[in-house]
Amino acid sequence: MSRQVPEALFFGRVEELSQMDARLARATGGRPQAILINGPAGIGKTSLVRRFLAGLGADHCVLQASGDELEMHLPYGVVTQLIPHQVHGVTDAGASLPDPIAVGASLIDALGKFQDRAPVIVVIDDVQWADTPSLHAITFVLRRLRVDRVLTMLVTRDATDPRLPHGLHRIFEEDTTARLSLAGLGFAELAELNRSLGLSPLPRWALARLRDHTFGNPLHTKALLQQCPGELLSAGDTFLPAPRRYERLVAERLDGCAPCTRRLVGAVSVLGMSAPLHVAAELGAVPDPLESLAEAMTGELLAEGSVGAMPRVAFPHPLLRAAVYHGLEPGERSRLHQLAAGLSDDPSIALQHRVCAAVGPDSGLADELGRFAGQQAQEGAWSAAASASMSAAQLCPDRSRSGQRMLQAVEYLLLAGDVSQAAELEQEVREADPGAEQHYVLGHLALTAGRLDEARRELSACWESCDAATGTETLRKAAEQLAWLCLIQGDAPNIVDWARRGLGLPPGTRSSFLRDSLAIGLAVSGEYEEAMKSLAHLPLSGPRNSPEQLDGLLARGMLRLWNGQLSEARGDLKDTFASHRRGGLPYAALVALGFLTDAEYRAGAWDDAVAHGTQAVSLAEDTDQISILAVVHAVTAFPLAGRGDFQTAEAHAKAAAVHARMLGDINDTAFAATALAMVHAARGDYENVVSGLHPFLGQEIVHRHGIEEVGLLSWRPLLVEALVRTGRAAEARDVLIPYERRATERRRWLDQAAAARCRGLVEEALGNIEAAERAFRDGLAHCERDEPCFEKALLLLAHGTFLRRAHRRADAVAVLEPASRTFHRLQAAPYLERCNRELAACGRATARPEDVAHSVLTSQELTVGRLAMQGMTNRQIARDLFLSVKTIEYHLGNAYAKLGITSRMDLIDKLGRDG
Questions:
Q1: Mode of pairing for the β-strands spanning 120-125 and 177-181
Q2: What angle do CA 830, 835, 841 make, to 5 degrees?
Q3: Which of 464, 635, 789, 890 is most buried (most C-beta within 10 Å)?
Q4: CA–CA separation, 12 and 32 (whole Å)
Q5: 456-469 burial, b for 16+ CB within 10 Å, e for fewer?
Q6: Which residue in 145, 148, 144 sits closest to 27, CA to CA?
Q7: In terms of Cα–Cα distance, which of 209, 155, 221 is closest to 185?
Q8: 149-171, pLDDT tens digit by residue?
Q9: Nearby residues of 218 by Cβ (< 8 Å), 6 or more positions away
Q10: Looking only at Cα atoms, what is the longest distance across the chain?
Q11: So what's the pLDDT on residue 233?
């Protein structure tokens, strides 16, 4: 955490420095801020950061890191610069690479400890070269800073770079981010720069000529001023050296140094933007590195990094490093890279040096890179695997083998979440030798981009074009992707078919979605018992350390949810989320969290549902898991709509619809429409419920299994009630019948209860009073079990309303009061209001939302409070919710103040009493 020394010459940027000071003041006050500094190479971004840091007092903690072209594919290279030795599992040989969520949680924990002592400033330079896992982890962290004394400064050449995570782009657009786009120096700054260099004053028109020539780029301008006499700059008919000749200017500066200094600078350029001084000295054969470093610093060729037991040296600017590196003789550059490979303890860095040292195709090195890529893939280090595979492709002398390695690289990029980089290589994929592997990668690319027809065509071609040379891993992956594609399209028979084809092949070494696809496909087809039999290999509980113990657990949780086994479903889905995060499929972890939200909504655990839904959306956005966003947005809207938070719920529902349209997924579309219908129903806007859900009755929807199977979605009960409320009872009856029949055939008690409620509403509207009474009682009988559920409260409200209309007020009160208590506990304001109106019509006093102690708490405060009640410390709560300790303290303090309490014992009394 050393302080950077500012460059000797720095001019202008007064407005930028003022904005940076203002953002630091806000962060110091507990309002975390970010600063995005954007501009072309040499424009002064790093110099601006150094000047800002130099002006700080000693009461700030500065964490610094920078991306490096040589380390772009080194997993968590940037994060480990920020917090060395604090990220577990990154460097453990043979261990699975931790996911960005776990690494982000470690960074949040570290920031919490640092800010206890002083405000923290996190600086990440050259973000465009940061490794992808670090980018995802940092995005995760930035979205979870709430009341932390943290200022984050992100420095990049192009803020629109598609390689940056979507979540990071969203952070760039937030009000808490200051966006500083640096332009060239103005006339006044150029004159001051010229004067500070001790040169003769230049007339304004010469300064204008200089600015037009260099675009005000400080690095180019300074080099030009030092090289060219004032007379040359002032002579209007002379030719000025182009900025691209900056390498020559640097070479001339190097030529003025001693040979040992030149060797030191050249060695550092081969090692990267920075390096340990002793390593650079050994590589460059420099006997007195401190003396050489002093001369290089005088010539502004190198700067001193951290001082202490392991001093480092660094280039002041990437352009300077590039000029030195490209100025080396090719043979010398290759020799230094070969030597650097022998000095590196990191196999990945050593291989990259050997790649840079290569002077032509090298089949042996290509094979080594291929083996290394396979090892990295086994550990989940997909970015490193992709980098090694691309290098292997470039070095492979055989064109066919080279194409195969490039195909593997693109597959690794997709698994790493580098979708944009993978898409850029699509043309190279198409130029590879035709075959099963090419078809598979093209299909995976198309599926990721939402081009479903193309994906089906390519993946099917992969399967059909296989021969004896086609590896079973390729076929299994194709079957997995085809099963997933059919799941997206709701094509249940083909989900089952492709899952069985994939499972019929020899098992792979990593988790796959095949067992889950098979069970889900069978369940959606109405074969629930068969689906559960396919999951019989799963232990009821215990560790999930192998694919055999984990594959299918997500499906079991989903099936139990659809079957109304809410407690078991919640247990499986929690276990799935935790297990897949430790070393399975990141996508499966987020699917589990989404369906856990749904299970908690149905079970009436709405505090948990809101917390987990919000977390699922955030995690999916942070890690660019686009294909799950429709579902997690939709289920997050469910409890929010029930509580009357219409603005937030509607925003989630509409976001779900946007993502569903992107994928062309009928099931996601149904989730989004159901979420929006819940918002309209809670508002009492039944016309919009009908208009939003009626299209799902259309027979033009070819694959209806996913939207018709009971237990998955509640769109038919919502539509039936809305049709009744809008005076279309006969049509409501017709819509209800198939749902009612399926619920009975499947013996799904929760859907049978909902169907009975709808039957009661229909029969009452048609004037069949006895049939309505019978239906309501049947529905309540289905709910008489140990599983708590929101549906029971809805049934009680509907039955009580029916009884009140039948002038049976005492009977109505007997069922409305327990409904009122449930709505009260859930803070289901729209439903509590309706229940209160019915009770008032019966002459009974009604409960008010404000009577509940925890109704004044936000969902986050309530979640934190409930975890504190369980005896968890603030640090344990922070780790569980992926928030900083400072944020937990803030929420807990707010809860104490709102409830008028001062201790955790008081908290147990307040929240425990109110349920």
A1: unpaired
A2: 130
A3: 635
A4: 27
A5: bebbbbbbeebeee
A6: 148
A7: 221
A8: 999 999 999 898 878 888 898 89
A9: 11, 42, 43, 44, 47, 184, 185, 193
A10: 106
A11: 61
